[in-house]
Amino acid sequence: MSRFLVRRLIHGVVVVWGVVTVVFFLVRLTGDPAAFLVDQSATREEIEHTRRLLGLDRPLAEQYVAFLLAAPRGDFGNSIRDKRPAMRLVLEHFWPATVELAVAAALLSTVLAVPLGVLSATHKDGVADHLSRLGSLLLQSMPGFWLGLLLILLFAVELRGLLPAYGFGTWRHLVLPAVALAAAPLAQNARLVRAGMLEALQQDFVRTARAKGVPERAVLYRHAFKNAAIPFITVTGLSLGFMLSGAIIIETVFAWPGLGRLIVQAVPGRDFPVIQAGVFVFALIFVALNLLVDLLYAVVDPRVRLS
Amino acid sequence: MRSARGVMSWWWMAALIVGFAAATADAQTVDGVAVDAEAELVVAVPDDTNNMDPRIGMGSTRSAYIRQVFESLVDVDAQGKPLPGLALSWKPVGDLTWEFTLRRGVTFHNGEAFNADTVLFNLDRMFRKNLDRWGIKDVTAATSFEKVYPTVSRWEKSGDYTVRIHTSEPLPNLWDAIGREPLVPREYTVKNGIEALNERPVGTGPWKMVVWKRNDSMRFERNESYWGSPPLFKRLRFQVIPEAGGRLAALRAGQVALVDAVPPLDAGVLGREAGIKVVSSPQKLYCRIYLNARPKDKFDSGGKDGLFGDSRVRLALNLAVNKEGIVQKIFHGYAQANASPVASVAYGYAAQEPYAYDVKRARALLAEAGWKDAGPDGVLRKDGETLTLQLLFPAKHYGQGFDETTPAVAEMLKAVGVQVVIKTIDYGSLLQTVTKGTLPYNGGFSACRTSNNLDADDYLRDWTAITLINWVPYPPELAELYRATRREVDPQKRLKLLADLQRRVRDWAPVVSLYQEVKIYAASARVLHFVPLTDLHMDFRGVALRKP
Amino acid sequence: MRRGAGAALGSLLVLGLVAAAAIFAPLLAPADPITNDLLERLTPPMWSAGGSAAHPLGTDTLGRDVLSRLLYGARVSLVVGFVAVIVSGAVGVLLGVLGGFYGGWLDDVLMRAGDVQLAFPVLLLGVAMLSVLGPGLGNLVLVLALSGWITYARIVRGETLSLRQREFVEAARALGALDGRLIWRHVLPNVWAPIAVVATFSVARTIIAEASLSFLGLGVPAPTPSWGAMLDEGRNYITTGWWLALFPGTAILIVVLVINLIGDWLRDVLDPRVERGL
């Protein structure tokens, strides 16, 4: 088990290193931020001076090595726009804003999915099932930001500010963005649970349990659901990863001051340190989540450990 | 014997009278309306500032934040006219010296005194001199004074409240250049380093910064020992709400009392709502299409001169644009057409004959310049060259009106035979292109220009040296005329020279001028006496909040 | 399954209609989607007050006809969706075969590269790459194609690996049989089913991704109409110009919905175990 763990850890480190390296060179291909910082009437010398101050005139390889040496210490340089340490800026936006949003959406999309999926499975082909499946299909076919716009239109405009459309602060600000972010994964998870439950319910051991007179509820949860749990865990883990990705656009729509929005704003501004630090955090979280899912998988299904 | 009740009632009366007196003594009124001196005014703004250190840069957003905390020698009124700020007066002494007399009794928020030493320190920072001596780091500054005003030679104090600045050539607008820079405290900066100016800014202004939550809000508190009359309410908060719809929703829901950057389309609707006032003012944001007219050795040209070197062509393009149409249709009246290169609210602005919307005359001018053969596609040709404009368009950088105007203008230019190819790029790439000089020979870009200064010189300077914004360098006569405006010390004579230069630049038409923007605010009825400035920031001195 | 087939048939029909509308856009569109006319700005759809039959679905902020832009925008969405998936499918299959067949360091590198790419939030990769490459339809397709190859690669690699281990393959190779024929005859028949299912859902996802990138301002550059860009233009006018965002949003919804239905049916028919809910 520990060998498995170590292997996965090393794998994770390699992946994060790969991500960070790709980003490092990718953003430097987009040009440099010096031109942003000077006045419109700046001459080329002034821009060169600015580049020198920012350390951007050194050869690329040298910059990369300096970056690799500093990064493990948490030093990703200073944000070019804000002039403060990039990692600090990134963490300020990551916690609590993005974390709150991602966790709220993840909770919504998993916790609500279970009863919905079970209901659908047990009332297969009934009205509830059809409604639920139609709803799932609709939610999965909508761009998340469109749902966000519709929610804004409904709650903030039509219903005269029942829920705030923009900004961050109270739990009320969290509702609309979390719902918009959770909608598609919720639909997907509900369908998963339903499919898993259906398959499990048809298994022999369920029929055996029923024949033995085990109460229906126990049949459902103790036997069927546990089997459906494995793919469910996988998807939930990946779902959290999707949350991070989807959060980028939801944060933009709702002006949620999170990490996704910070990075999206940093890209046109060529704020390299912030982009690098931000992507690093994202990659780290993603890899950690995957590791966790793998671990859970290994715990639940012994066959995995041996592979 | 006096009855106990009689004595008691006397005491009650006395108590009532005293209490009443005390209560009314606290009640403040403005124009007879009771105001709340302890209130908080929440302003919805579209963006956060990157920095509070004024040296790093001031644009329209940043100025609003920075100038609450820091002040400059020269203050400005609502019409853009200069007022005494931290300097009581300024005057030229001879041709080569400007003397500033400083206000006395001013302290920074931390108690440090403001005096001539403060000003000398700030001048050192602005001109990047003696930084080692002060032990502070250089910043990547937006304006390098030493490059833009190279004739400023030295500065000194004469007593604690007089500063003299010497130049090697006459510089009549030096008061404006130096006077608008917000000043930072000397001892505080030297002791705490320049990062402290961003993290815990300390200025002389009417507001102290209390809390800064990046990309979310900034809270200020009244400076009780302000040298002028302290603000009439206690707390101020700038709340960042990037979407205009969000800002307006917040206003309607009562979460904010003042909204900055109201879109023109909404202004009309809002103005009709009860409890909301819409106020507006012309401002210095001046949007244009810049055309490539540089000679081939001045940019990465591949051997061709800029296609738009003929001023008749540029003038024709100006005549082809329906500027009133833009003002009415896109901005619903909240913009101005301006034929002068100088913003209408600047000192030294002289109104010029507007560019008429005259497609026939435009075509005639183009024909005169040699562009008379229209191909089957309607595009004009000359010597095997088509009249194509590769227009770099920085979408989503300046606001919706700009984003809608550029394609509309492209359409108008097509009507006179110009083939416009719009290349939407992000602002960073545009900066890159103009910095490196890689704008194509038939290229141009749309962009807006604003100014931190009050004087027209800031605008007319655009076409002197080869900078990223100068793609049509002054011909010798105009360059000479510009230099003359820089040298003339007599104000009246200088205004005449400036007017003359503006008229000639109008005819020379270096750019296609599009519009000058009007800024629009919406305030709840609780807010009293909010007056928009033509300058870039917001001034809350004199603003009060009605008691609910 | 019969019910599923009905829905799938209906979906194919709808998709066909959309494709036809896109192909015949020049004939169907009432106006040029690019010419702007300030005077016609923001007219509502013809059933609202102020609307006119000349612009059945209204006009946008530059006076361009919404219906025309919707029709031409279908081209962008469909082209980007299908081409990107075809390219990423082809690349993914190729790389998966190479990795699975030759194994060794090539396989390792490919799998690591895939992991690295997966650890990028998809949208962020798109944003970063488009900033480098600049806007453009080709670049957009490239970026979207690049984000999907891994899934196909993994499916094909799995099959190829198991194929390699079978004895008759060893024998065949010893006899000098071409690797290509082996792959063609043994790997592809087993993988085309899951790939078809994945590809179908990919098209739906890619259309949404294109809309998202356009919404962030990185999609097909103006003035080419695209549904995502129309949504982006419309978001500032949700109250005053509701038709600007409603129609392209609904269009995306319908197209993605029917593609998802087709994908569901394919999955049920071809292989119920594959990609459950993915």
Descriptors for this entry?
heterotrimer, B: 548 residues, eleven-stranded mixed β-sheet, 18 helices, 24 strands, 32% helix, globular, C: 278 residues, mainly alpha
- The count of helical stretches of chain A stands at 14
Give me the Rg of chain B, rounded: 27 Å
Uncertain regions spanning at least 5 consecutive residues of chain A: none
Structural class of chain B: alpha+beta
Total beta strands of chain B: 24
> What's the story with the biggest beta sheet of chain B?
11 strands, mixed
The rough form of chain A would be described as flat
The tally of beta strands of chain A, per DSSP, is 0
Provide an overview of this structure.
The complex is a heterotrimer of chains A (307), B (548) and C (278). By secondary structure, chain A is mainly alpha-helical. Chain A has 14 helices and no strands. The radius of gyration of chain A is 24 Å and the shape is flat. Chain B has 548 residues and is an alpha+beta fold. In chain B, a hairpin with a 5-residue loop joins strand 4 and strand 5. By secondary structure, chain C is an all-alpha fold. Helices cover 72% and strands 0% of the residues of chain C. Chain C is elongated. At the A-B interface, helix 2, helix 3, helix 5 and helix 8 of A face helix 9 and helix 15 of B.
Topology, please?
The complex is a heterotrimer of chains A (307), B (548) and C (278).
Chain A: H1 2-29, H2 34-37, H3 44-54, H4 60-70, H5 86-111, H6 113-122, H7 127-141, H8 144-158, H9 171-202, H10 204-211, H11 216-254, H12 259-266, H13 272-300, H14 302-306
Helix pairs in contact in A: 1-13, 5-9, 5-11, 5-13, 6-7, 6-9, 7-9, 8-9, 8-11, 9-11, 10-11, 11-12, 11-13, 12-13
Chain B: H1 4-26, E1 28-30, E2 33-35, E3 40-45, H2 60-69, E4 74-76, E5 82-84, E6 87-92, E7 97-102, H3 116-126, H4 131-134, H5 145-148, E8 152-157, E9 162-167, H6 174-179, H7 186-192, H8 194-199, E10 207-213, E11 217-222, E12 235-240, H9 244-252, E13 258-259, H10 264-271, E14 276-291, H11 311-320, H12 323-330, E15 335-336, H13 359-368, E16 373-374, E17 380-382, E18 385-386, E19 388-394, H14 400-414, E20 419-425, H15 427-436, E21 443-449, H16 457-460, H17 476-487, H18 491-508, E22 511-524, E23 527-528, E24 544-545
Parallel strand pairs in B: 3-12, 3-13, 19-20, 19-21
Antiparallel strand pairs in B: 1-2, 4-5, 6-7, 7-9, 8-9, 10-11, 11-12, 13-22, 14-21, 14-22, 15-22, 16-17, 17-18, 23-24
Chain C: H1 2-23, H2 25-28, H3 66-102, H4 104-119, H5 122-133, H6 137-146, H7 149-164, H8 167-174, H9 179-215, H10 227-234, H11 242-270
Helix pairs in contact in C: 1-3, 1-11, 3-4, 3-6, 3-7, 3-9, 3-11, 5-6, 7-9, 9-10, 9-11, 10-11
